[in-house]
Predict the structure of Phytanoyl-CoA dioxygenase.
Amino acid sequence: MENHDPTDISEAVETYGLARHITELDEIGLTVVPQSTLGLNDTWFEQLRDAILRVAKERSGVTFDVATNPTAAFEGRPGVIGHLILSHLIHEDQVFEKVLTHPVKKALMTHMLGARHRLSVSDGWIKWQTPDTWEEESTTGFHTDQSVVPPPWNWRLPHIANMNWTLTDYTRENGALAYVPGSHLEGRLPEPGEALPLAVPVEAPMGSLVMFNGCTWHGAYRKTTPGLRVAMLGQHSRPYMLPFQDFKGRVADETYAASEDPDYLRSLMRDDEDQLRVDPFAVPRAQ
Ligand SMILES: [Fe+2]
């Protein structure tokens, strides 16, 4: 019987040419994988973006168009900052499964989190021109994604890692993700005001996959242009942590049946635990 090591990503690294991205994750704490490396066409990304905008309309009642700011006024935080987060998208459309099981994402996530990592959130993020009433340079304050675990952290073994699929062009003016290169090596949270002067924008065209370490300091710049910034994101965690959103036992059979990597999908959703047949209370029998 073949003895496959689930942490062995050498085949995907070779097939897709990921060595540079592995190095960037280790040295910089973030990498941008271009569309050409992913081997996906424009339609793939447009379907993903349109599915997010469709769910946004169903949940908020507001029609979103990529080229313009929403005409409706939102209460609370979306109205103050100019962004809307849509959670639990895996239940809405098969395209949200495809972003989870893409072999490049799987390999880079396995590099950061090892085997049997879990999906922690399945979110879409729609951001529009930052209202003038919001005065700060960043609309998402600088943080790390694994701040739920007290520092110090070992960047080589992050508890959490993240993926962002860019579904519109990311530039500083367009309110891009901002991060501090090499900050993951610090193994701690930034002090107040420490990160912004050191930060750079993630400049990435639509159709890119941004992956980053849970120790990396990041936030987002205010959006000074009209229209939408749309992204699909997904924090993942190591298997000893409970995900932020609970997908176990809730993903439809049809979603698994249509997946190109159902075993990995089951692992992401914690639906593999029953298959492992590990009884944590088992007592060894006397011989
Ligand atoms: Fe974050």
